[in-house]
Every structure is written in C-alpha cells, then in structure tokens.
Amino acid sequence: MSIANCLEYSADNKCTKCAFFLNLNTTTNQCECEHNTGTVCPLNQSCATEIKKCVPLNECLSTLHCIACKYFNHSECYKCAEGYYPSLTEKACISLKPCQRIRKCKACSDITPAQCGICQSNLNPSSDGMICECVAESRAECPSGSTCSALTRTCQTNNSCLSTINNCKICDYNNHQNCYACASGFYLTKAGACQSTSTCSTLTSCNACDETDNTKCAKCSDGLILNIAKTVCECALGSNLPCQSGYQCTPYTHICAQKNACLTYPVMISSCRSCYRSDGRLCYACDTGYTISPTKLQCVANFSCLTIFGCNTCNPSQPNLCLQCVEGLSIYKDGSLCVCGSNNKPCEQGYVCNDDQCQLSLVKASNSAVIGCSIAIAILLAVIVVLVVFLVRKMSVKAPTVVRDFHGIQ
C-alpha cells in the first residue's frame, strides 16, 4: 500500500524517506511535519525539518542581504548577497569586511572578526586565523594542478580518479581519488565503480540499475522519483507516470510543469530572458537593466528603489528594496520604506525627520519665506507704478491750463 508523501521504501514496504522535507514517524510509519500530528504543511508553507514546524515559504528573505533560504528550513538563510555570509544561527547576514583581506576566506571568525573562521575550496584557517591553508600549519594553499581534499587535508592531483576508475567522467570535489559521476550509459555503484546501465536501460529515465537486481532501477533522472516496485520513474508520488512531452518534473514539489513556462502564458514573467531548466516556471536570467527576485518569479528594474521616498541606495540583490536611507531616516523591516523614529512612519515630501518626528523642511520653509517676500515686493512696486502713472497724468492735464492763463494775461 502506498504511503502518502513517502519517497523511498524498504523491502518490507515500510517508508524509509519522506518527500517535501517531511519527517518520518517510525511508530506510525507516516510522513508528517510536526511530531505525532500526522499532518503536512498547508499551501504556501514548508516544513522546517530540523525544528519539525511549518514555516512560510521564503520567510528568510525578510532578513537583510539574504538571497536564498535553506531547503530544509525556509526561516533560515542559506545564501547572502556578495560581501556577506550567513551567521551561525543563519538568521542574519554578516559583512565580510573585517576579514576580506584574507585570501579565500568565506566567513569571519565569530570571536575575532579580523580573523578567518571558514575558508573556501576545502581550505582551513591557520592556527592564527590569518591564512587559509590545506595541510595543517603549512600556511600554503595547494599548488597549481591540485586540489585540497576535505577528508584527508592533503593536496591531490586534479581529476586523478579519471585514470584509475574506468568510465568515470567527473571526480569527487572533496576527494579527487573517488568518482562523482560516470560517463553516459554507466552509473556509480556504492563501491565507487562505474557499471553499465544496459540491463535496466529499457526503463524510461532510469540512470542507475539496482545492484541486487540489475533488471530494476535504483535511480531516476530528470527530477523523477522511483516507485515502490523500482520499475517506473514517476513525477507525482504514486502516479506511476513520468511527464508528457514538453513538460518537466519540478524538484521538491514533484509536479509536471511546461518547459520554458516563464516565457509563455499564463506565467509570462515580464522582462525574463530565460527559464530554469529544472523548473520552467522560474526565471533564470532577466533582460539588461533588470535583476531576478529571490523567488525567481519576477524581474525587477534596477534602481527601482529610488521611488521610495528618502532612499538613496538600492539593495543589489533586490533593487526594488532600499539598502540605505538618507540621513535621519532608517530602513523599515525588509527595505520597502524609509521611516522616521520609533513610530515607523515615512515622512512626506518637503518634510525631514527631526527628534523622531516629521517636521517641515527648513529649505521648504525658507523657500516659502522668499516667495512671500517676493510677492510683497511685487505688490509694493505695482502700487508705486500706479501712483507714478496717476501723478504724471494729473500733471499733464493741469499744464495746458497754466499756458492759457499766461497768454490771457498778455
């Protein structure tokens, strides 16, 4: 009998792994999020496996500088914008500035930020935290043509597995002596060898045969999952069907979505140039002048945050949100507003934030005073002009009479 949301089964038909990050209740043999509830998460929520709770999808994106959430817990940040890294609690993004001068440093030390805490490329911080090294106390990276092994902390020749393991195509990043992926027509066994898929190749989308019964499938391709009998690669759990031509199985949600759906009706993401191969509903790249949103469902115009009153710097990963406000204003929550004081209210145009209150700008006030004075002067000049004209006309009327009187006397 099929178990709802079960991803993998044991030989005795018991669930061994759940889909959608749900937790397996071994007592009831059910897939659930919160322990002993027997229920899954509602729409627009995801199961935070580690804490066994339902959390809003992409909840972590409200964290400043966070651009991607953890798959297993959408309340925690997985990836931060360039120049930042997730904190130990994964609830904040911390600046790399204190330790950025250290070559190949990925995260600063929590105790001494000027030192490196985590290195890139499988390297490890030196004892003083000032260098990223491979071999302990060597104070050196690996020479050209070799890579540091995370398992042995030694420098290994790049792609050394290709000469020792037949039909291997890609070596393991953490240990180049092991194979990571085999050539087409072969699959990687648990022992680390590449074995032919000829015995199970008749099964559509199967790319690895079962080691105990090579007529059955062990692993599916194209995002599909294996049914209980290991004979069909399916998309929706329990459907026993892959996706039809022109559609692809989306990861994690396991539904058949149209390829390149982000460019066509009804999804049609404006200004999107290309879609994700694994999920055609999501945008992979935007047109020039636009940045993809963290949800991959929108292309946002660069510098669009400048429409937010009081904002002078946009968030590079989310240009519709503000990263820095003008002096006196502070960022509200996710950067959608620049607010004044503890009341978290934005100021209207022509006002500035003083003493936690929006007050009339001195510039606006002085401009008003100048305008007022200008009007008063204009009125005074108009009155003077009228008086001058009146006097001139009066003088011109009286002048002929004086002349006539003068001639009359003679």
TrEMBL record:
Entry-linked InterPro entries: Cys_repeat_1
Give the stretches traversing the membrane: 369-392
Q: Which domain of life is it from?
A: Eukaryota
UniProt keyword list: Membrane, Transmembrane, Transmembrane helix
Query: What name is this protein filed under?
Result: Cysteine-rich membrane protein 2
